[in-house]
Amino acid sequence: MHRPRRYGAGVGGYDLTMESCERCGFIWVSVSDDEFRDRILSGISEMSALISRSPQADAHPDPQTWSVVEYGSHVRDVLLHVRDRIVIALVEDCPEFKPLYRDQRADLGFYLGDTPDVVCGELAMASSLFTRTLERIPAGGLDRPCMYAFPTLGERSVRWMVQQVIHEVEHHLGDIRVQIKGSQNQERQNQERL
Ligand SMILES: [Zn+2]
Fold this sequence. Notes:
This protein is mainly alpha-helical. The protein has a single domain, classed as dinb family like domain (Four Helix Bundle (Hemerythrin (Met), subunit A), Up-down Bundle), CATH 1.20.120.450. Helices cover 54% and strands 11% of the residues. The protein contains 5 helices and 4 strands. It has helices at 36-53, 68-91, 102-107, 116-135, 158-193; strands spanning 4-11, 16-21, 145-148, 154-157. A two-stranded antiparallel sheet has the order 1-2. The protein has a two-stranded antiparallel sheet with strand order 3-4. Helix 1 runs parallel beside helix 5 (158-193). The chain starts with a strand and ends with a helix.
């Protein structure tokens, strides 16, 4: 999974170190507040376009890897879940959250029947709701602290949670691109064998 490596010293009085994702290179603290809305909406727009155009959106390249549409379902759930975490962090002092239970959501069958059309509509709704929430965060709200379990349990901020949502969108956008490319290569090889 995306295990971050330490990148530098802490900033802003929090134990917030500059970290980057080993797999996609995302650096959480590099995303400024004025980029939040556009990064989320443009990432979701591209994700939806890829999901709806994918010829094999529900195919698993192997049993351990999500399908293209399941990546979309996961990102939808992240947007909804972190939106609620933001509200909680604005009300409670340094709350700790229940996990998202990312894998269990798929394993328990909650993504069964999520079609590309349905997921793309829900991604549009969830990203609109999330970015409208961002616009309504009161002054100083982005600095509110919370405890976050990823990558390791530690004190973060509402700002970091938004950066993490952008990471989730862009990281899984990369996963979807790789998977679509893989299935196109596979199809080409199959054609060549004919
Ligand atoms: Zn990443």
